């Protein structure tokens, strides 16, 4: 077995504020996380959880906490111009710092606060849910670094019976070479409650080499509903993005999460989805448009831990130039989790002979009377499809765009909320237009 030297990444914990007001349990969590980070090695070439990944992308040695953004007003205006029309609240963060908050229609009894304010005001409630899921998909070192850092992001809590009629929208801007931000979202829907959040990740400038190390905790208690959508459109000239998601659904609880990747040079998405109560359901969708030398690496786990649980995963990747995608997914049915119904599909549309799509779907079944399936396909747009559209007066390049958009939009259509879907359609279409120039 060969070993590679682990780079130091950071010389000190990435903390940029006085944490004396934060609860003791959280400060201890930061200290223990830093120790775990120092002890954790970089991923190795022979680690199956990093199979096919370009490990040169994580040879960090100059990372620093992000400095304050120099023109926050311009970023606020930019985020407001891009956002959905109807939102329950809108928060904007730049380089790990809150620069704008706007609250419109937060239901009575609900909590919607920046993560550090919530830790001070609702620390006991957050302690029950914050970073409680074990990371088992390969990103343990990123988890530890995130746990030691100063965080941006939101705590969104819908208590029993409370329903958010409109989504909470969050913008994260990152910039500066080797500067690192740590967004964290904690979304909880209590019994018979419902909450929705959409996050957008963008670069401050066009040629940024920043790093985003984000985490998301989604919890749907008994009969609770949570929807979470992440739109990643960072600079493709060097920005990198790591996002580690965990979802837990209780009895008859439902969690729906989606990832739309358009930017960044390198992306690592990990998604652990646990169905822990009878009748629980998790749905995981992703639409990814890669070009140039972009690499999108996505690993998932659908963990069925109770009877009569369901899950559905649909990932759509459209690849151009010399881009690469990696998908590694496992459906795991635990002993006694009978009557499980689970699906896992990854489809790749190759727009270039040099593009590369890798897929590793898997099943692990330890129960009876289950219905589980997985599959992956890769292929190019057929000449017959192009000819059909050309015969109706549509130029070849426009025909390719139409087919590719329809291919990717299938995953987006599974989401709730007309405005969210239309917004994502528009962002995907805008990137396709850049590809045609």
Question: How is this structure best described in words?
Answer:
The structure is a single chain. This protein is an alpha/beta fold. It has one domain (24-379). It contains eight helices and 21 strands. Strands 1, 4, 5, 7, 8, 10, 12, 14, 16, 18 and 20 form an eleven-stranded mixed β-sheet that branches. A ten-stranded mixed β-sheet has the order 3-2-6-9-11-13-15-17-19-21, with helices on one face. Helix 6 crosses helix 7. The mean pLDDT is 93.
Task: Report low-confidence residues grouped into runs of 5 or more.
Answer: none
**How many H/I helices?**
8
Q: Which outline best applies?
A: globular
Share of residues in strands: 35-45%
Q: What order do the helices and strands follow? A: HEHEEEHHHEEEEEEEEEEEEEEEEEHHH
Which range best describes the helical content: under 10%, 10-25%, 25-40%, 40-55%, 55-70% or over 70%? 10-25%
Distance between the termini: 47 Å
Rg, Cα atoms, Å: 21 Å
SS elements, strand count: 21
Overall pLDDT: 93
